[in-house]
Amino acid sequence: MKTIIVEGKRIRIQMWDTAGQERYETITTQYYRRAHGIILVYDITRQETFNNIRKWLRYVDEHANNNVQRLLLANKCDAEDERRVWKDQGARLAAEKNIKFYETSAQSNINIDEAFTEICRQILQTMSESNQNGSGMLSSAAGEAGSGAILLDTKNEVLPRSSCCY
Known about the structure:
The protein has helices at about 25-35, 45-50, 55-65, 85-95, 110-130; strands spanning about 1-5, 10-15, 35-45, 70-75, 100-105, 150-155. The strands form two sheets. Strands 1-2-6 form a three-stranded antiparallel beta sheet, covered by helices on one side. A three-stranded parallel beta sheet has the order 3-4-5, sandwiched between helices. The longest helix has 20 residues, at about 110-130. By secondary structure, the chain is an alpha/beta fold. GO terms for molecular function: GTP binding; GTPase activity. Belongs to the small GTPase superfamily. Rab family.
């Protein structure tokens, strides 16, 4: 669980990292159904990770709810000398799939906060439009209290900034 502030709202997010491994395929499809947002990440130093993004996008399309927000991240942008996937390749794929795109570095904390803030913004907008319950809290997409990956309350607060990734 990680808590961040987005648009003055305290957001608790729960993340699952499957590292794109085939052995997690069955598990990930279960998580897709309840997810409000999915961040797909590839490594700019490994072409095969970018090549697999289309497959993972298909899985999201097949198993996630229709309102799930997606974000594409190209990680290790600080490893320019080892780059195998060019920025325009990622940007084109994101544009084709109508999703936001960031180049990031988890190690150097480049665009990490921005990416998580963006996906939370998208989720908040979608949830507000689809199922605001009027109590200052937004429930999960499935409507089950406590079952979702994002909770919203209206407290304004400042959190310390983390030094790396979430």
